[in-house]
Design brief:
Belongs to the methyltransferase superfamily. It is an enzyme of class 2 (transferase). It is found in: Endomembrane system; Membrane. This protein is 27% helix and 12% strand. Strand 1, helix 4 and strand 2 form a beta-alpha-beta unit. It starts with a helix and ends in a 23-residue tail after the last helix. By secondary structure, the chain is of the alpha/beta class. It is globular. The chain has a seven-stranded mixed sheet with strand order 8-7-6-9-10-12-11. The chain has a three-stranded antiparallel sheet with strand order 3-5-4. The chain has a two-stranded parallel ribbon with strand order 1-2.
Length: 466
Amino acid sequence: MAISVQNLIKERKYPFIFSLLALILITSLLLTKTQSPIAFTLGLVQSRSQSTSPSPPPLVQIFPTSNPGPGQPPPVHDPLSWSLCNGAVAADYIPCLDNFKAIKALKSRRHMERKERHCPERSPRCLVPLPRGYRVPVPWPKSRDMIWFDNVPHPKLVEYKKDQNWVRKSGEYLVFPGGGTQFKDGVTHYIEFIEKTLPVIEWGKRTRVILDVGCGVASFGGYLLDKDVITMSFAPKDEHEAQIQLALERGIPATLSVIGTQKLPFPDNVYDLIHCARCRVPWESDGGKPLVELNRILRPGGFFVWSATPVYLNDERHQTIWNSMVALTESICWKVVAKGVDSSGIGLVIYKKPVSSSCYETRKDNIPPMCDQNNGQNISWYTPLDSCLAPLPVDGMGNSYSWPAPWPKRLNSKPPHLSAERDAEEIFYEDTEHWSALVLDVYLEGLAINWSSVRNVMDMNAGYGG
């Protein structure tokens, strides 16, 4: 397909133009340099920043690149070349989570502060190396069930979870049988059990976008893809290594996060359903702040599926937790809409968030209190958890929030909480049409990319997600 620059400009396909110009510039520069492509490209970015910023920081301390002998001057770092990080944790190094200096200085660790982001003041000046034996990932959809062990060489999780059928090592592969702590009959059976317990969930139609808390290796989200459901899975980087690294290698959306002292990086009222299977979050702790945070991001009328031992075990310890959960969910006006136990003895309870604020106003005790109207909504990055309930949204006529259209009609329909500004709807539809044409004409047809081999993509300026 012939594509002229003039037509691209006329059709406002600026991302492609900028990408093309950047590619031409970098290619021409590479032909004149002797450095490796990666080292030179990164060096180019760094050298540009030096014109307006102070001298570059040294390599991150836990990854020294060399140790000068006694009386020798420290090494001079070439701004156009980067060294590989080294050390025991080099291949898994995440600057904002492995900032051991900041973690050591924490005043408290009672609320998972050590698992939260603590970014270093100076960015590391080394490149994270690939594991030994790394190879091109197993293609999707085969990767959902097996990946190369050498790409994520973490035997601890395999050993620790060997009796729960999460993951097994088989020759050169890590194999994911679809089991788990709560998936004794397999994750497919568990997913069907949830919908059977509450048919109105309607996987892939009414329920399209969900959040899986404490996801492990994210098999729940991986198998929900068969139901046309998009799951954002998250878990902390814990003692069993970064389990979401296995999820991403499998091709399943996931991120490292924790419900500790800060809000999750998601807007208000967005997820159709939130799921927790033995996610080990103490919902009742700190005045119920963790559950209030789920309430913030759960869509009005949305569901919380809690599959945990307090739901179906009757000993004193579990029943104490269950009673605390009953009191807490009632205080935020969540209603139990279903409860069940499957053939394996695993039980779950499903709560529903209200669609209007009327219940909040009729509570006997105003605990947790309503948030101040001036309380910043949709502000979540590095923001402390709320201990108050935000009023539920209404439309321009004062009517209660309406559920989005069923998928796939929902993709191109006006979002329920689109800005009330006069031009917002027109801008939304313009953006949808623009990206539809741009993806079809340029990204799929005009770039030399075999998209069938691409599974995980990060969109760094998503806008409406077009």
